[in-house]
Predict the structure.
Amino acid sequence: MDDERKSLADEFESSFSSGNLKYFDTHEFIEIIDFFLDQNETQKAEKAINNALIQHPNSTSISIRKADWLFETNNFEEAEKEIDYILEIDTNNSEANELKGDILIHQENPVEGILHLQKALVYTDEKLELLSKIGVELIQIDQLNKALQFFLKILDEDVYDEAALYNSTYCYELLNQPDKAIQFLNKYIDKNPYSQIAWHQLGIQYKALEKYENAIWAFDYATLVDDAFLGAFFEKATCLEATDRHHEAIDIYKMSLKIADPTAWAYYRLGDAYAKIGDSENALTNYFKAIHEDPMYGKAWHKIAVTYNNNSQPEQALEFAEKAVEIEFDNKDFNSLLARLFLKLSNYEAAENIYENLISLEVEDSEIWIEYAILLKTLGYEDDAIELLLKSLAYFPKNAEILYRLTGCLFKKDKDLEAIDLLREALKLDFNKKDILKLNYPIIFNSEIVQDMIFAHKFQRKFL
């Protein structure tokens, strides 16, 4: 069919160039125009439309192509006027209603647009593409249950439609109905047992529910159907890691690197699997291979830094941590590691700048707030440290370590009443962490008032 359309298009261009345009019937002109539009050759499409309307001035089909051309060339108002005129003459025209729907959706009027698409659906024999388009638009306006019904209708007509299968599962995910998704996929597999996509999607649903053994079973079937299905192999490997079967996961990652071109992601996952079994040498080897494949793979740079840091090599870690932050400057985890490395290496000014930035981002790691407070105190900014710890309580009101540290700071500033309230709360939350106060403020810890509170709390706990 494409060859026939191209042949007609070539014939049109040849006769147009000669100045003696031959006669083409309406059907032929439609094929010519559609060919040019599909090829995004809008100027040629315009020539074909103009000449088609000269030869067939009353053709609704060609007028619809003109409206389509106007739409494709961003002349939206003119396209709508043209299509409205056609609909006045032929209100039930399927192509006109579909294009009207497309125009309204583009104009951010999806509800009215979908109504026209549904009207087009009634009067067309080519229903599957329209069903899919309506379903996708319903997802966009959060009409998920309705969207799902359209995709299920497609599967009733064509069980092999993979896009409809994906979209159906996606609707269940958006509806947060994994059990229904699993039920749907199992029924689908009964009809089409050799669908690797369905088995893969079933595994993903089980994985989301942390039913890892069921997920592994489903991914195994996906790879039985398609023994080069890398996505299923990778998903199985992550499930194996989740169940602490890291050696099996390593075997899968190694196998994947043999059957397909190596990727940074695969090397990175292999490195992580080695890290989880304490093999830092092989972990580093694969992280380095990841950045060789993709020098902008920030996660691999970060994990190299983590590995060196865990091996008590902060100087080596620093270079890689800085590169990770350079690649993803707003990544909180990357910045947190870099700040801690600067702190370890006594580069307090650099550490302070990063901690300040992290706090401004309201990072959810309480250790960052505590470390920054310790740094401020070390630099002699005790009032700033107190202010920071007080602010942190809004995010971590039940963090005993913050309360003990703040207690010491406030006692030191002779704010005994506030300190007593905080110490009482800290003792309730975690009595065993009182040594934080002892290590950092030994004089205050051994004071009569603090010892009395500790004794009273210990006595109270004994008889509760």
Q: What stands out?
A: The two ends are 86 Å apart (CA to CA). The chain is about 80% helix and 0% strand. The CA atoms of residues 121 and 130 lie 6 Å apart. The mean pLDDT is 92.
